[in-house]
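dude i think i finally got it to work??
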Amino acid sequence: PLHSARFAQDDDVKCLKSALENGNPDTGPSTFLLKAPTGCHIRPHYHTAEEQLIVIRGSVWTAMRGMHGTLLTAGGVAVMPGNAVHWFSCRGTRRCLMAVTFDKRYDIVWADQDLPKTQ
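look at this
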């Protein structure tokens, strides 16, 4: 149940709280729950693994290099292939809650650009 998830300050992104739900991110596939306050921006980055993001609550704006961004709400899904630069932010008036799954060992590489100024 969601109320039993053990959220902790995320090591990589200070405006996120994360809870490991399944797997071992150090050795293979894993699934996390992520909480983000409105205004939390995750700058461009990529993972070696494919990332699948499902919005549970809130409004999450996400984009990937070479593609237009989109606003996802509850039930919205985004799939980012491994090594694809992407970014996202929590928008609107509600905190965001997301489930994020990686198909391989977790890593994060920060891209050499900032969020586009118009996004």
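The two ends are 34 Å apart (CA to CA).
im so relieved honestly
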